[in-house]
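Researcher: Go.
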Amino acid sequence: MKKITKDEDLPVTFARRKAEIYRKASELCILCDTDIAMVIFSPSRKPYSFASPNMRSICDRLFKQNPPPDPNQANMEVQKAERINALIQELNCLKLRFEAEKERGKRLDEMLATRTEKGWWESSFDDLGKEEVRVLINWFDEMRIKISNRLIEIGSIEAPSSSSIATNPGSKAPPSNGQ
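Model: Structure:
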């Protein structure tokens, strides 16, 4: 092989060989899954380029502005997709629980609307007699003691002084109206 000496043959030979080089570069990209960038200057000093996927990304990689993709990136994408699917499933479960609780709330509202008796806590204190008021006070004192003891057990408060808590072992529950 030797250099072409006739100036009129140079452009024709250049165009033909340039097309062959582009075709070979394209085949190499497809067959081997490679990235290619090349610049060719014609005999008249005009630049021609070929790049796959594109010149900018290859130049960025070449000059370390945009490093090549991390081989673990695909694994991270799979993990991200799995996490998204798990969150979607959790969201769907929460939606089902929310709907079930809404239905439960509707049933409780219906029960409350159809209820005929009042609870002891809804009764007027004006209707209570002297003994009923004493029983109620004793019951509340006992509940306060139990609540204080429970708070002490879980470490939420300090033990109250013994003089501030009076005990009444005989009380069981608050009186209902008419007892």
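Model: The chain has four helices and two strands.
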